[in-house]
Design goal:
The chain is 42% helix and 20% strand. With 304 residues, the protein is of the alpha/beta class. The protein has a six-stranded mixed β-sheet, sandwiched between helices. Strands 2-1-4-5 form a four-stranded antiparallel β-sheet, covered by helices on one side. It binds adenosine-5'-triphosphate. Adenosine-5'-triphosphate binds next to strand 1 and helix 2. This is ABC transporter ATP-binding protein/permease.
């Protein structure tokens, strides 16, 4: 009886382990499934390792479902090493631009080029190698903090992981936990806040060191100190990189080389912060509104 009990008990543990691994795998496949919308062309070549990493959208139109067009004739360029920020109401198509650049989907009209090559003509692997994404909602694996950061560059040693964590200002938080970099995170481990998760994603991206960066700002508001810190970290991560920033707060975009204002899948205004303010259009209205909301909040805090 005892002999039978032990293996069964062991099997129970094993079963739970396997079941959890399958759940994790399932999640991963769901993510991969989403990425498998497009296939490499026969004979597709990788992007070159060294290039002038510009990004160009030329007359791009796109629909997830044929009956509902999302982007209409969108054209813009991010010269190598520059930052373009996209603002606009929820649902205007901002994140769709990022998904298309990463080639989760193919455009129906127009073209998207990286380093002058149509993304449909090169291997998906090389496109994804060239791009680092800091998403709105970072997927953390049920594994250690170290694994989650090193995911940006498998095989990176502890020293390199720690350097990236320091640069993303998450090191002291990690060091303050009893198990440090061995701390398990994710659903069954330490729960990280939105800001901490974004920092893990920034550290991952710093490790990967890709020439192109997509930053999809979290919609959920962080407290303003955290928000400013993340913005500063992002700014240093984006230095000399070609960056597409999807912004939900205008304070993020002030320094961008160009700001695109989107509405209903169209770019309705473009320019620098100063140019758009001077224009007195939609961006200037959004800015004035945000300033007054912040002003009211400040007045409330200081009791005016
Ligand atoms: P937010 O600021 O809320 O993140 P957004 O400007 O980034 O919004 P997108 O996520 O690009 O907007 O979505 C644009 C439109 O495309 C929305 O109407 C959305 O419902 C639709 N959409 C997004 N993803 C899909 C999908 N996988 N299938 C069908 N429609 C989608």
């Amino acid at each position: 009886m005892i002999q039978l009990y032990i293996p069964l008990n062991f099997l129970g543990v094993l079963y739970r382990e396997i079941k959890q691994s399958l759940t994790d795998l399932e999640k991963m496949f769901t993510l991969m499934e989403r990425e498998r919308e497009v296939e490499d062309k026969a004979g597709a070549q990788p992007l070159p390792e060294e290039a002038d990493w510009s990004v160009k959208f030329e007359h791009v139109s796109f629909a997830y479902e044929p009956a509902r067009p999302i982007l209409h004739d969108v054209s813009f360029e991010i010269p190598a090493g520059k930052t373009v920020a996209v603002v606009g109401p929820s649902g205007s198509g901002k994140s769709t631009l990022a998904r298309l650049l990463y080639r989760f989907y193919d455009v129906q009209q127009g073209r998207i080029a990286i380093a002058g090559r149509d993304v449909r003509d090169v291997t998906q692997g090389s496109v994804r190698q060239a791009i680092g994404i800091v998403p709105q909602d970072t997927v953390l694996f049920n594994d250690t903090v170290e694994y989650n950061i090193a995911y940006g560059r498998p095989g990176a040693g502890r020293a390199v992981v720690e350097a990236a964590a320091r640069a993303a200002h998450i090191h002291s938080f990690i060091a303050s936990t009893p198990k440090g970099y061995e701390t398990m995170v994710g659903e069954r481990g330490l729960k990280l806040s939105g800001g901490e998760k974004q920092r893990v994603a920034i550290a991952r991206t710093l490790l990967k060191n890709p020439p192109i960066l997509i930053f999809d700002e979290a919609t959920s508001a962080l407290d303003s100190a955290n928000e400013r810190a993340i913005q500063a970290e992002l700014k240093s991560a984006a230095q000399n990189k070609t960056a597409l920033v999807i912004a939900h707060r205008l304070s993020t975009v002030v320094d961008a080389h160009q700001i695109l204002v989107m509405e209903l899948g169209r770019i309705i205004e473009r320019g620098t912060h100063q140019e758009l303010l001077a224009r007195g259009g939609r961006y200037a209205d959004m800015w004035a509104l945000q300033q007054s909301v912040e002003g009211e909040a400040l007045a409330e805090v200081i009791g005016m």
